[in-house]
Amino acid sequence: MSNLRAFTPLETRYKGSPTVASGNLFLTGFTLVELMISVLILGIGLTSVANSYILALRGANSAQNNISALILAKEKFDNLEFVSLKGVKPAIAAEETIKGPIKDYKYQQTILKLPEFAGGELADAEPVSVEAISPEPATVESDYLAKFLVSACSTLTWPEKNSSKNVTLATYLLRKK
User: Fold this and answer.
1) Residue 156, Cβ neighbours under 10 Å: how many?
2) Range of 118's domain?
3) Looking at the 3D structure of the chain, how many domains does it have?
């Protein structure tokens, strides 16, 4: 049982020990360089883990902001569709601020007339956004739809870190005369 001992750093071993050669005394254990390298590796590893944790928290915060914005935009958008289905001409709201559960969001709603095509060119001269113009060639169906539909767009914008994020929902609504 005397041969079974715990190993401790810098333990001395004498003649007859398996680490002794030709009667010299050896110190066994960890050197200062080995300890410093171990601490360095451990420090780099812990720093990487902490950085990964911070990035995960930022990602979760961004996802939470996106989900909150989508829920608020969907509520506003459903209200816009409901008003349109009731036969009331939807009012174009000025930019407003909505208090969310986490932060404040800026809400903007736009309703655009679809362009009417005549021989491949725009028939009406009023300005229309680029998003409303289809890259496909004009057809009889697109002229017919342009008479009865408008493009409705709801956008929620919020600041996040050093940039501005947004969520946009778009659909077509019946045109009210």
Assistant:
1) 25
2) 32-174
3) 1
